[in-house]
Design brief:
The protein has 3 helices and 3 strands, in the order βαβαβα. With about 70 residues, it is of the alpha/beta class.
């Protein structure tokens, strides 16, 4: 029986951080990167489109911090 992958969304205002996380997680068969963006406000819209299990977010971003986004 094949287990479903853990669906992950990533938001960080630094694209290099996002690329690094994708590089680390994409090789693991347990994870699927569902969506990612550099904007917390855009992530709110993306979360309406994608079902996720985990949200990886930067704590300090210019327009909205990670804690506000997670609430």
């Amino acid at each position: 029986m094949k287990k479903e992958k853990i669906r992950i969304a990533i938001v960080d205002d630094n694209q290099i951080v996002i690329d690094g996380l994708i590089s680390l997680l994409d090789d693991n068969e347990k994870f699927k990167i569902q969506t990612y963006t550099t904007s917390a406000k855009k992530m709110i819209k993306l979360l309406d489109e994608f079902e996720i299990d985990i949200l990886l977010t930067d704590v300090m971003m210019p327009e909205m911090n990670g804690q506000e986004l997670s609430s």
